[in-house]
Description:
There is one protein chain. This protein is mainly alpha-helical. Helix content is 56%, strand content 0%. It is built from 10 helices and no strands.
Amino acid sequence: MIVANARELRAISGSNSKHDAADAEKLARYARVDPRILHPIQHRNLDAQADLVLIRARAASVRARTQLVNAARGTVKAFGFRLQSCSTRSFARKPCGDLPSNLNEALRPLFNAIEALSLQIKEYERRIVLLAQSRYPETARLQQVHGVGSLTALTFVLTLTDKHRFAKSRDVGCYLGLRPRRYQSGEHDPELGITKAGDVYLRSLLVECSQHVLGHFGRDSALRRWGLRLAQRGGKNARKRAIVAVARKLAILLHRLWMSGEVYQPFYGSNAEPSAS
């Protein structure tokens, strides 16, 4: 059985005479001539799909907590008050003595729900760490890169499932939608944004890791230096482009470490030496 990638079959979805018989005929002709035209999708195994539920549940809890925090801040702001600036984790534990008693009483159940979600997210993270250590020891290789934790490493392994499915590690960046789109015609070849194909959540985690690599607390490495040089070129969007570029390099690096089992060297293939700081 061949499962076609609907994103790549614009000849069917964009047809002005689309019906089931014509669609079936086109699919059959593509499969007979060259199945690669269909860009077949590789399904995850049941174990990986079940383990991914833990990660999806944590992500849903984080989104729900963020919405509740935004709702609380917006409600208070409408009355001319502001809640203290703090991390989302400690939001519900911050004192709200400056609020009127009736407003404080009305929002208390909301704060309790936020606190309950924070505790549940913390439990999810504990289970994710245990799952990575017990069933997916290869995630330890990926966590050698500073800024990559158990969540990103486990999501990477479970999303790709099979490290041998890609002929080259560079293909992983394309698979996750981190390569630029292209619409070349004759001499017209404009610069476009990334394709944003593949798994949205894993791509967002890689972007977060990239922000950490380029941020104030990122450790010195060839990847960080390359990203900082890229961020210095161009206009106001240069840093955003550098973050996406580093995320793509990071995806390639993680797959390479997974494939080879090598020890991560921050300055591999570079003549640069680590800075004294």
